[in-house]
Amino acid sequence: ALATSLTTYKGGTMSRLITLHSIVLSLFACNAIAQTHCIPPEITFFSCTIAGKQKIASLCGTAFKLPGESNFSDESWLQYRFGRLGAIEFRYPNSKHDSISKFTGETHRSIEGSDHALWFSNKGTNYSINYSAYYVGLWAAGKKLPCSGNVILQSDRNSTDFTELVLNLSP
């Protein structure tokens, strides 16, 4: 059917070509959208595909503070998830209870911009999620794992974004 639409130029073929063109563009657009391990109503604070790995790193959670308040709510939680979509290989922490205390934020500002990092440590291995003008990706066990394609920095416009989360978790 596709070959017929492409080789025949009579009648309604032009509309078939436009439809085929639209379908192809839609497929490219779908592939360009960043994917996440977070499941609604969870908030995706950060998510990206790791370059050359076909694996996704996501930071999922709940709204960490109530509007107008400066402290974390008792129900707030964060969880880092890593692996192929639908097949999480590593999740930290395993329990959502008291999970926010397992993360530390760090922000460095310079004339070139800001570098935001969220750190955690698991079994002696240090991890960080980094977002800056120069590098977006992870550090895990001393290895740089850059993101490729689109990056999600917040999935809920009524919530706080990744950079504000980092600032709130900074010592």
Provide the fold topology:
Blueprint: H1 2-7, H2 13-32, E1 43-50, E2 55-61, E3 78-84, E4 87-92, E5 104-110, E6 113-122, E7 125-131, E8 136-140, E9 143-152, H3 162-168
Antiparallel strand pairs: 1-2, 1-9, 2-3, 3-4, 5-6, 6-7, 7-8, 8-9
Walk me through what this model shows.
- The chain is an alpha+beta fold.
- About 20% of the residues lie in helices and about 40% in strands.
- The chain has helices at about 1-5, 15-30, 160-170, and strands at about 45-50, 55-60, 80-85, 85-90, 105-110, 115-120, 125-130, 135-140, 145-150.
- Strands 4-3-2-1-9-8-7-6-5 form a nine-stranded antiparallel sheet, covered by helices on one side.
- A hairpin with a 2-residue loop joins strand 6 and strand 7 (about 125-130).
What is the average of the pLDDT values? 78
Sheet with most strands: strand arrangement: 4-3-2-1-9-8-7-6-5
Helix-and-strand structural type? alpha+beta
Biggest sheet, in brief?
A: 9 strands, antiparallel
Low-confidence stretches: 1-32
Considering DSSP H and I runs of 4 or more, what fraction of the residues is helical? 10-25%
Q: Number of DSSP helices?
A: 3
Roughly how many Å is the radius of gyration?
20 Å
Shape: globular
Distance between the termini: 62 Å
Order of helices and strands: HHEEEEEEEEEH
Count of individual beta strands: 9
Beta-strand share of residues:
35-45%
